Amino acid sequence: MDAEAAKYIGAGLATLGMIGSALAVGNIFGNFLAGALRNPAAAASQVGNLFVGAALAEALGILAFVLGVLMIFG
Amino acid sequence: MASTPTLDVQTPAPGDLHAETQATAEHASGGLPQFEFQHWAGQIGYLLILFVLLYVLVAKVFAPRLRKVMDERADTIDTAIAAARSVQTEAAAQAEAARAEVEKARADARATAVAAKQRVTEEFNARLAADEAVVNARIAEAEGAIAKTRDAAMTNVSTIASAAAGAMLERLTGKAATDAELAAAIKGAA
Amino acid sequence: MAGPIEQFEVKPLVEFGTVNVPVLGEQVIAITNSHVAMTIAFVGVVGFLSLATSGAKVVPGRMQAAGESLFGMVDNLANSIIGHEGRKYFPFAFTMFLMVLSMNLLGMFLTFTATSQLAVTVTLGLIAFLTVVVVGLVKNGVGFLKLFWPAGAPLLLRPFVGLIELVSFLLRPITLALRLFGNMLGGHVALKIFAQFVVQLGAAAIVTGGLAYALIPVAALSLGMTVAMTALEFLVAFLQAFVFTVLTCIYLNDVVNLGDGH
Prior knowledge:
GO molecular function (chain A): hydrolase activity; lipid binding; proton-transporting ATP synthase activity, rotational mechanism
Largest interface: B-C, 40 and 58 residues
Distance between the termini of chain A: 19 Å
CATH architecture of chain A: Up-down Bundle
Protein name (chain A): ATP synthase subunit c
Radius of gyration of chain A: 17 Å
Strand content of chain A: under 5%
Structural class of chain A: mainly alpha
Shape of chain A: elongated
Number of domains of chain A: 1
GO cellular component, one term (chain A): plasma membrane
Subcellular location (chain A): Cell membrane; Membrane
Number of helices of chain A: 4
Keywords (chain A): ATP synthesis, Cell membrane, CF(0), Hydrogen ion transport, Ion transport, Lipid-binding, Membrane, Transmembrane, Transmembrane helix, Transport
Shape of chain B: rod-shaped
Oligomer: heterotrimer
Helix content of chain B: over 70%
CATH class of chain A: Mainly Alpha
Number of helices of chain B: 3
CATH topology of chain A: F1FO ATP Synthase
Number of strands of chain B: 0
Order of helices and strands of chain A: HHHH
Structural class of chain B: mainly alpha
Radius of gyration of chain B: 69 Å
């Protein structure tokens, strides 16, 4: 296998890391929605935490994406 | 790329500087432009300057200005609310006073009405009493008159009776009785 | 056609020469498109704030209301996270927020996004990190090291937990920088790729004709995707600035209220 092909395979594999991030973000928003429906009065005060949590989870997916980009272009 | 990179880096003429950097860029990495480190220092330094400038501006000018206005607004709202609250209590007090006044007026009116009624009743009673007295007097007078008439009648009756009795006695016995005897006898019969 | 990563190229507009910097190697001193973007963002922020605060009235105008809503948001953030000392650190958090937000949003209008440059995000991350370290050292002195001495853990485990704490503390600027960088890079690359599909597929359909006309719906779909992603990118631009500020406040709170169990 030549190095160019390995690069693309590696980049493709790196994107798999986004699966975890997708699950995490979905989990966060799903749980928020479930909690918000139980107690709508408290929901508004937790939106900040929601987005911070989502951003933290998303960052790991972004990391996988950056690794993939680095493999193709780096 | 717009211009083809020249690898002729030996001539550092100002015009060729652009081409030269592009050549070194191509040489450094064919990858992400972000990892071409030759532009890092310039960006970092410039961003630091801008950040410090903005920090100073925000800390010394903008934040105090906005903070002042927002505090002022909070003050205004607080005083307005306090004023509204005092006005409200005042209005409540006034309403209370007005109600008390109305209550008092009503009580007064009621008292007046009662008094008037009482006066009228008393007057009526008094007049009634006066009328009654007059009527009673008349009745009494009439009764007196009746009694006098009756008495007169009764004396007449006894006179007639004694006369009749004297006559009957004279006829029966042939002897006339004295008036005194007759009167006593009638009295005893009556 | 330009590749999807060409938009991130730093192009010198006016060059002044090169210097050698110890860690980074040979550096070009120049006014680049990155400098221009940062300048526009800075001028935009200053202009916006001047408009919002000049002749500030108790009953706000349109600009003042906009400025106040941003101000109030970050103010609430700083106060709720850091506590009663939040006011002191508010200007820092607000500056950070405005810097990141303006550069992110500007990237939606210009062809160049300053926050998609790793140099820029690393600088912002390091500013936040070093501020935290300096504030921690000034406020707590040597007690700053208690941050890495977890009093709640069993004595035997403490060194290991402390080591993990230390590593995660040192990783903070990197995660801060990479999160912002990755979000901006990823969003703009994806936008560019979808936008390219529209042009390439549409051109192919028209030039080739015949069966290739089937590509036009695909191009239309890509156009829809581009529009939707543009909206999403606006949200991300705001959200990343918000998250950056929240995390900065959380990190500041760690050292400001050290040992308070706040």
